[in-house]
Design brief:
Helices cover 67% and strands 4% of the residues. The protein has a two-stranded antiparallel ribbon. Helix 5 packs across helix 7. By secondary structure, it is mainly alpha-helical.
Length: 222
Amino acid sequence: MPLATTRRTGLVDQVIGQLRDAIAEGEWAIGQRIPTEAALAESLGVGRNTVREAVRALAHSGLLEVRQGDGTYVRATSEVSGAIRRLCGSELREVLGVRRALEVEAARLAATVRTEEELATITELLDQRDEAYRGEDIETYVRADTEFHLAVVRASHNALLTELYRGILEAVTASVAATTDTRLPETEAIGHRGLLEAIAARDTERAMTEAAGFLDNLIADA
């Protein structure tokens, strides 16, 4: 996303907004170094002090990480994600625990209020996930598995729950990658057909049990 020249009112807030949007829209990927302070100041048409204040604010909220003598790097794609990444760090058990808290409730709600269109989307993503597993395509598997869980959360029709989950999506993706071994026989792999069946049948108790079960096993092994 090209950065637009800012107006002269509320410069710091405008720069914060533009940098936040650029990060959210993928202009700079997580782990990538953003342009230098001087380059950003020239691109935005503001002073370097304004850029410095904006970067400091985004670093405080967890989106950016300033490495002295090296540059500024993207750390997360949203303030919620940044906050949770600071909380969880690289502790897999903690990430899985947060996932459990959100996904069990999402499964219960999805089984209650999901639409037929949402059920079709969830089914399609699960089919993609399982096909990728059989083909030992780890990248596609991780993406499809993450999108499957996000689709279940969206089917809860709870906007705040969905936003919270979207905020930890990078951590969810990382946890999926860390707990996947496509070399295992499919019979030994983590399956979500039971969860899909429960949501399809509007069986809230089974949906909660299915959502909790595989995460409990992962937590125990982490």
